[in-house]
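Hi Prof. W.,

I finally got the ATP synthase subunit delta prediction working! I wasn't sure whether to trim anything, so I left the full sequence exactly as given:
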Amino acid sequence: MKISSRVLARKYAQAFFNVYGSVLTPEHYTALQQAAYWFKNHTLFLFFLKLAHITPEHKQNALMHLCTDIFAMPVQFTKLITLLVDHKRSFLIKKVIQALIELYQKAHNIEKFTIESSHPLRPEQCEAIVQFLTEQSGKIVHYTTRVNPELIAGIRAESDEHLWERSIRQKLRALYDISVQERLL
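And this is what came out:
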């Protein structure tokens, strides 16, 4: 039976988190996010990790340098890298890091939102939206903002678990849904 790479990466992350989750700090969480972003934008690096003619020592050294020297991940992370290289699964590093981020967020009651608006938001507007989202979700809100002119004078906040939107686009969609239902009756 083949197991998907995402499930396998999640198992490595869960095992690491079970043993070393208590030593992860907010700074390590930030480092994990930076590493995830880096791996997302450097997919060729992950391709090279799959090549058999690159020695395990080179793969391990490259990952150690990236994770501990550049991204300042905890020393314990070297054990995870060694394990991945020994199991010939170093190419899973991006997915393992993403799974660790999710585990950290769950353990620390953090929810990541993308806040879209039809126009750039001022800092005080962002603070008000974050306060609202915190009250509604009961979680610590981390967010990124993005301008989306398709909203037509509105705001949309979306996470993996929640969606909140107030915009002209939402009202038009609701009117369209009503008109479609009336035609069906």
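The chain has eight helices and four strands. Does that look reasonable to you?

Thanks,
D.
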